[in-house]
Structures are given as C-alpha cells and as structure tokens.
Amino acid sequence: MNRRWIAAAAAVTALLAAGCGTSSTPSGGSGTHGYATGGTFTMDISSDPGTVSPYQTTEGSARQIFAFGYDTLVGRNSAGALVPELATKWQATTTQVTYTLHRGVKCDDGSTLTASDVAADFNSIDNPNTLSPWLSFTLPVKYTATADNQAGTVTITTSQPDGLLAEGAGELPIVCPAGLKSPNSIAHKFDGTGPFQVTSYSPGTSYTMTVRKGYDWGPDGASTSAPGTPAKIVLDFVDDETTEANQLLAGQINAAQVSGSDATRLGGLKTAVITKLAGELYFNEAPGRLFADKDLRTAVAEATNIPAVTKVGTGGLGTVATNMEVESPPPCPGNTTSALPARNLAKAKALLQADGWVAGPGGVREKDGKKLAVSLNYQTGSQQTVNAIELIAQEWNAIGIQANITGYEEGPWTQMLTVTGNFDVFYSSINLDSPFQYSDFFGGPAPQNGGDNFGRIDNPVFDTLSRQALGTEGSGACKLWNDAQDALMARADVIPISVLPDPFYLHDATMQAFGVLEVPSSIRLLAS
Fold first, then answer.
1. In this structure, is residue 163 part of a structural domain?
2. Domain co-membership, 380 together with 291
C-alpha cells in the first residue's frame, strides 16, 4: 500500500519497499488524567530518507522526521485555519506579509532565534547558490525578506500578487543559523526550534530524540509541559505493514500508518487520519517521447478502467479520485477529474488507428515499422501496487499497446525521475499542501533544470490559469485552480486514479495529524 508520497524532485518515494526494522517497547509511568509521565513514544515510518536537512529535501519520510525538530511561522488547526506558531501574529496583503515572532524561542545550540535569522532562511532558499526545493513549496514568486530585530518582525515583500502569501511563506521550516551555514552538518540531526532534539541516528534503522524542555511556541501555543508529552521519541524504519500491525497489536510501538489489508486487524485502536492520493498515472511528454502525443495519452485514458484499478490498487479500501487536492478539509473542493476522457475502448482503438498505429503481429500496434511498446514503471514494495500496474497493462494491451512493466527500488526510482528522465509513464501519487504547488509539478522546468515537472508538461492553458489563480484570493482563486486542473485532465496530462485514508494507528497514545503529516507537539502517551 502506498504510504509515502512524492514531495519534490529531491527524492521521489511514493511507494513502499519491502523489509523490516527494529522496534522498542513504549514505556511511561502513571500520570495526570490518564496520561503517562515521561516515557517513550515509538513510531514506525516507511524508510530512511538519507538526509533530513530541511532545505535539501521535501521528500515525505524526511518531512515526517524533521517535523519533530523544526517549527514553521504559522500552523493550522483541525479546521485548516492558520494559527500562531513561531509567529504570534501577522498582517498580510497579496504582496506583503509581516510576521511578529514569539519572544525567547531557542535553537538546538541554545542561542535565541532572531528575526534576522528567519529572514536569512528565506533569502537562502532563493539564493542561486543555495537554491532549495522549498522555494516552490512556499513562495512561487520573486520576493525580498527583511527583518527588524528590535520589533521582532520579518517582512516578505513580493514582486507580484500571491493570494496565499501568508500561508505559503508560513510553511517554511525555520532552520537556525549554524544549520543554515552548514546544511550537511544537519543531515542526521536538527538545528531548529522544534519540540524534540536528535540524540542518536542509526542508518537504515532509527532516530532517537529527547523532548525540548521549556518549549511553549508550538501550534496555537502547544507546549512540551503538557501532561502526556513523551520524554523520548524513537522513529523506527519499518516498511512492511504486516510487521507494523503486529507490533501495534503487541504494544511494541505506539504508532504506524497502515492502509492495506492489515488495517482490518486494527479496528480497536485509536487513529489520526489523513487522506491522500494513492494512485495516479504520469506521462513523459518530453519532445521525442511517445506520450508527447496527446492522442496517445487520450487513448490510454479511454482504455483505463479507473474504478477497477482503484479497487485492486487499494485493496478495496479506496475511492475513485475526483480532485488532486484530497486533504481534509480540502483547500479547493470540486470535481476536476470529470474533464478526463471517459472510458471507451472503441474510441481508444479508433483514435490509435487514426494516429497511424495499425494492428501488427500478436495484436501489438505499429507505426513506420516501430512497435507501440511503452515502459510502465512503479516503485517496488506493495503487492496491491503490483496488482494495479498489472491490470493497467492488461487494459492497454487490449487496445494494442505493449506495456512493459518495470519496478524500481528507491534509489534507481529517484534517479529515473529526477536525473535520467528515461521513462514513458509511471504510477505513483503527488500529495501537496497547497494548490499553488501544482504549478511547479505540472509546469515549468524539469528536475534536470531545477524544477519539479517530472512529466515535462507544457500546457499553456494550465500555465495561464495557474498564474491568474496565484494572484487571486478566496473563492475566486479556487475556481481558477480547479479550472487549471481541468486543463490538465482535458489533455490527459495526468490521470488521478484513487484516494485512500492513510491513518496513523495508535496504541496507548493520542496524536493529531494534518495534511500529510503528524503533528509532533500533539503527541501524548496514555497510562497503560
């Protein structure tokens, strides 16, 4: 089952890889109102992402880890509304936002965070010499960042309107000066202001952290002095859901995300639920590649039985995707996948025939002596993903397309998407925090040229609507963002397939989750 998500060109890890890690037994004495005192909170996550230096990656597993050690200027509550975090208040227009910082915030080295430190972070991610994938995640327009240390304010001023300026800039994880100066020094430790601090790292096995005492600047005033806050965090790397379910039921761990068939065994446990896209099809539209041809993309869209692929690809637990924004509450509700070409095998065959692809030996179509053979790629680790891929290949074979299935482990997968670009189509999912982030993944430069446009998509209607939406506020912006998605669907630039609840199951603990991540400052251990 997909438990990771594509989050940036830095490391694309959308699917599981098989294997198992170590675990430790949660512990804690009896506390106040049913909470434990101190103790260890142990959570399984799917893989070791390598670096957790924030400005070097936005990959899903890395974000799960560094969320424990780095704060943002603003947080969100369960309704999706902005709440104070490092910033106690802010004033924003579409071209300028000023954040007033919480006083007395401490970095991992004991120094006090200043407004100049925060401004330096924003200037760093936009510096050509230190360019970060977080730039497209937070501020997709040109800007300047200035600070007033006496007033404790940081001001971001943009060159053009940005309707989500306060939200976007507010999502940047804030790195303290020493870590900013030497990003490689924080590859496996933190230099932030978050609620927990790394004490040890075992490659491929685990991270261990201790609580930061005196922390009271979390989302909406969250504090590590709250009853039930664990004294210690252990994050184990375990990518087998059966193992994780067994560990939860045995009380060996406190939390893990389980969304496959093993979830049926965990019905008695508490959950913190997030929703994500579980499956999508992405095409390589670079010049000279087969799927640069819109007719070919349309034909495979017409051949793909999305409800059937959803069923096998999610073990019957998912639903058909109707929007590329699936978090709850959704930032821009609406059905945008209705613009996809409807399934119609006869039309698909006729379209291929008209495009010059005629039936050849064995039923595989040919044009100018070349077989219509495409590479259909996925990341290894999930049998249900394999089931989905095999069904897609069968459906494409039925209209004369030879789909050659190839599975990749994490390293070669990332290399394929971000370095070589040598693929025709891949099955995965892109889960992002805000609508404006789609502009970078479905437009702009390819990863090889500093962008995140894996499919090398060049859709002028999408680009125009995205630019208009970026400078618009409120419901008007949402209509434009949804229209931009429609433009992608109409050309079959991407085919969203399935949506799946991806809960954190909890044993003797409670925790909140928002978007695609856990909220570390909300973790509470319960008395056994």
1. yes
2. yes
